[in-house]
């Protein structure tokens, strides 16, 4: 099966510091997309950022950026200037062609921001 | 804003009952999905639908069925609820993925307990 792996079940970061959440994926498709979602304790899934496999530049959205290393099949999420409200579960997910838009999710990383 | 609405945030049912989880989206999305979320396992796809009356099995369809009679509504049915179906259920919708930023939009989730 084509998997998504998030190797950090839980992480701590000090408020205002940057943090990197790891994600590696396994695919044989040349065309695919990678998504990061945030899930606060309230349960809703919030879309953060997207990277396409053919995108020339790493994606950025405000304090979120994606460190995309295609050859290594990794798509790490970088959160700059962490805030207390960033404490949540974070999920990496992949979509590929001819799959009906299905997302394959990693197991998630629980991020805790310390004041 | 895209709105995906799940009929219940919390639901308690008894073993053997037939359980219906309803999901409605207001963005005319072709694709709709039902996921199950359990700690340490991430989100796992139960069923998805890419058109009215069309459905495809996901990774864990056993014990579940779905119905999509109208484009905006996708129902998940637990034919005979069992305690191992106690979980968080998330519904999502999207347009078909076409190598661009087209995230799935999620409902707030239903925490289902089977006693």
Give a structural overview:
The complex is a heterodimer of chains A (115) and B (115). Chain A is mainly beta. Helix content of chain A is 0%, strand content 50%. Chain A is globular. In chain A, 37% of the residues are buried. The model of chain A has no long low-confidence stretch (mean pLDDT 93). By secondary structure, chain B is mainly beta. In chain B, strands 2, 4, 5, 6, 9, 10 and 11 form a seven-stranded mixed beta sheet that branches. In chain B, strands 1-3-8-7 form a four-stranded antiparallel beta sheet, with no helix packed on it. The radius of gyration of chain B is 13 Å and the shape is globular. The chains are: A mainly beta (115), B mainly beta (115). Chain A binds chain B through residues 4, 9, 31, 33, 35, 37, 42-45, 47, 50, 52-54, 91, 93, 95-97, 99-103, 105-108, and chain B through 9, 31, 33, 35, 40-45, 48, 50, 56, 58, 88, 90, 92, 94-97, 99-109, 111.
Taken as a percent bin, the fraction of beta residues of chain B is over 45%
User: Major sheet of chain A, described briefly?
Assistant: 6 strands, mixed
Low-confidence stretches of chain B: none
SSE pattern of chain B:
EEEEEEEEEEE
The count of helical stretches of chain A stands at 0
User: Could you estimate the helical fraction of the residues of chain A in percent?
Assistant: under 10%
Tell me the number of strands of chain B: 11
β content of chain A, as a range?
over 45%
- Secondary-structure element order of chain A, N to C: EEEEEEEEEEEE
Number of helices of chain B: 0
């Amino acid at each position: 099966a084509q998997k998504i792996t998030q190797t950090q079940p839980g992480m701590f970061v000090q408020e205002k510091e940057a943090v990197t959440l790891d994600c590696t994926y396994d695919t044989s498709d040349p065309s695919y997309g990678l998504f990061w979602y945030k899930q606060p304790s309230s349960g809703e899934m919030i879309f953060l950022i997207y990277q396409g496999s053919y995108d020339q530049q790493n994606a950025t959205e405000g304090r979120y950026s994606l460190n995309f290393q295609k050859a290594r099949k990794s798509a790490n999420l970088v959160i700059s200037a962490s805030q207390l409200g960033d404490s949540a579960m974070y999920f990496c997910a992949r979509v590929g062609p001819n799959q009906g838009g299905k997302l394959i999710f990693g197991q998630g990383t629980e991020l805790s921001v310390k004041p | 804003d895209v709105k995906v609405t799940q009929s219940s945030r919390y639901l308690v049912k008894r073993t053997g009952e037939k359980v219906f989880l309803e999901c409605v989206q207001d963005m005319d999305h072709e694709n709709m999905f039902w996921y199950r979320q359990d700690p340490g396992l991430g989100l796992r796809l139960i069923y998805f639908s890419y058109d009215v009356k069309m459905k495809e099995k996901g990774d864990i369809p056993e014990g579940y069925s779905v119905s999509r009679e109208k484009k905006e509504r996708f129902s998940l049915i637990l034919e005979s609820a069992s305690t191992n179906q106690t979980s968080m259920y998330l519904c999502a919708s999207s347009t078909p993925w076409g190598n661009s930023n087209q995230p799935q939009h999620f409902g707030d989730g239903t925490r289902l307990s089977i006693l």
